[in-house]
Hints:
Layout: E1 6-9, H1 13-20, H2 23-38, E2 47-49, E3 57-63, E4 66-75, E5 79-88, H3 95-117
Parallel strand pairs: 1-5
Antiparallel strand pairs: 2-3, 3-4, 4-5
Amino acid sequence: MNAQRSIIFYKRYFVDFYLEQTERVQEKIDYAFKIIRNVQNVPKKFLDHITGTKGLYEIRIEFESNIYRIFCCFDEGNLVVLFNGFQKKTRKTPEKEIELALKLKEEYFNLKEDENGK
Length: 118
């Protein structure tokens, strides 16, 4: 079964994060994206809802002993919108990263609403 999702980036947060990573980490991120684009039911190992939020998800990447997270949301079903990414240093996701992702998600939908209203 092919899911055929599209992935887009909102502003430069994700791109800046991606470009800071090593080639091997970028390959792992690309692999996770391939799964998200093509697998109907993406395993929680790669994509999970952030508890206590409305529609905010994290893409999960593990490489060697490092853990990376990329926040995203779904728009119009098969469109995945990427926001900020970061390397996890502790077990708990930093609140400031979640707050930034929620702010970007709100901006994205407000901007889209403004564009559609014109």
